[in-house]
Write a structure and sequence with these properties.
3 domains; globular; binds adenosine monophosphate
Length: about 450
């Protein structure tokens, strides 16, 4: 039997697209591309379970661009939805790159800035719209988007869209666009809610899964450091940078405040000011885009980001992903570490966890079906004392976790509230946190030394 050569030439794509693919430097189609491109060209509905980094964007864009072919009329023929403006911008950029030898018109619609320019672009005529569901619906309801020519609809990162509460908007969109159309749905994970959505949205779909559900990219080495507190996380991070163990790195934090704290701690003493940026929802849209571009171009070495701000960012050759906090939306672990180890580069994901985060990492390990190897804190890293308030907050969190698992558990921490921990001990020093942590810390206290061993010592 004649073997088909594994190149983009095997697909029925036109010369304009093949040239753009060559310009992009793609030579071999990735597994998701091999499967998705022919099926989509044939008109099938597709359910793709694939993480970022698998080449899923080009997998759906190439056949869609082939179908849209060239500029025609004024109304859009293809709708692509993504959960965040960053991802929308990134997909739109990919459309621009892959469609560069065609006259296909495309626009990115997202919130955070006035709609005037976006409306003008739509009015001039567009073939493909890439949008967040919210902004699309806003403009549709204003009468700015004609939908009668829509032939294809794509939902990218459907799991995240559902997590972010976009379902009502997606339902409204499905009600207003023509029923006869082709649908593609991509999701990094496949929880029950996405499965349900797929029944609603897709007709006899072909399911394409490039890696088993929620398993982490094979090219990513993962490891973990259990630490007593946030300051120790910062100390390890500083150590890893100073020893040159990590270079081009994205640091994920759970909140804006933590992102800012980490930024302040590293900027200057550890990483030259110009080499590090922080992005989160409080940063202006342009600042965020500039920071991402600077990081992508290699002008900035370290990017600190919250999950929402980093959603879908396509940045390659990241040597390390640091989970400064364990994500509370467990699928985000998969998304986060999907930033490294892309396109055959070996990447590394390092996670820091406090005793209060043990609970969450266990859940994540269940989802990814593997135990993340643990490493001892390097000898040269100072283990900081746990401030009283942080210690109390962790104990309370652990208590709540135990209650969640066992409704009959009364809560060691609350019992100790009366009498309250002695106020004068609130010095934020090592001695204070230990004494008052009581039995509530017994589940994690000893193991992590977040009562007794917080000596602030350099071992
Ligand atoms: P995605 O999973 O769509 O976010 O794509 C991840 C990265 O892989 C992007 O930077 C793409 O430009 C790149 N990419 C997509 N397809 C290929 C390919 N066939 N060969 C090499 N790189 C690719």
């Amino acid at each position: 039997m004649e073997e088909i050569e594994n190149t983009f030439e095997q697909f029925e794509l036109n010369r304009q697209l093949l040239n753009a693919v060559a310009d992009a430097g793609y030579t071999i189609p990735t597994p998701i591309q091999q499967k998705t491109i022919p099926l989509t060209l044939q008109g099938h509905d597709v359910l793709g379970i694939a993480q970022t980094g698998t080449g899923k964007t080009a997998a759906y864009l190439l056949p869609i661009l082939m179908k849209v072919k060239y500029a025609q009329g004024k109304l859009p023929r293809c709708l692509i939805f993504a959960p965040t403006r960053e991802l929308v911008i990134q997909i739109d950029k990919a459309v621009g790159e892959l469609a560069k030898y065609t006259d296909i018109r495309h626009v990115a619609l997202y919130g955070g800035l006035g709609p005037k320019t976006q409306i003008e672009t739509i009015q001039a005529g567009v073939d493909i719209i890439v949008s967040t569901p919210g902004r699309f619906m806003d403009l549709y309801l204003r009468g700015e988007i004609g939908v009668k020519d829509i032939k294809v609809m794509i939902l990218d990162e459907a799991d995240k869209m559902m997590d972010m509460g976009f379902m009502p908007q997606i339902r409204s969109i499905l009600e207003v666009i023509p029923r006869k159309r082709q649908n593609l749905l991509f999701s990094a994970t496949f929880p029950e809610k996405v499965e349900k959505l797929s029944y609603e949205f897709l007709e006899f779909p072909t399911r394409i899964e490039v890696s088993p559900q929620a398993t982490t990219a094979e090219t990513v080495k993962q490891r973990m450091f259990a630490v007593p507190n946030m300051q120790t996380k910062i100390n390890i991070l500083a150590y890893l940078f100073k020893t040159g163990e990590i270079q081009k790195t994205i640091i994920f934090t759970r909140s804006k405040d933590v992102a800012d704290t980490v930024f302040e701690a590293l900027k200057g003493p550890v990483i030259a000011k110009g080499d590090i940026r922080v992005i989160h929802a409080n940063k202006g849209q342009n600042t965020r885009i500039n920071s991402m571009d600077a990081f992508r171009e290699g002008d900035v070495k370290v990017l600190i980001s919250t999950d929402v701000a980093a959603r879908g960012i396509d940045i390659q050759n990241v040597s390390h992903v640091i989970n400064f906090d364990v994500p509370l939306i467990y699928e985000d672990y998969v998304h986060r570490i999907g930033r490294t180890g892309r396109a055959n580069n070996i990447g590394e994901a390092i996670t820091f966890l406090t005793p209060a985060e043990e609970y969450h990492i266990k859940k994540i390990e269940k989802i990814i079906r593997m135990e993340i190897p643990r490493e001892l804190i390097p000898l040269d890293v100072e283990i900081a004392p746990t401030p009283f308030d942080e210690n109390q907050a962790m104990l309370l969190e652990i208590d709540n976790q135990r209650k969640k698992e066992d409704p009959t558990f009364k809560g060691a921490f609350h019992e100790k509230k009366h009498p309250r921990p002695i106020a004068k001990k609130k010095t934020g020093s090592a001695k204070s946190s230990g004494g008052s942590s009581s039995k509530g810390s017994s589940s994690g206290g000893k193991k992590y030394g977040f009562s007794k061993s917080n000596k602030g010592s350099k071992r």
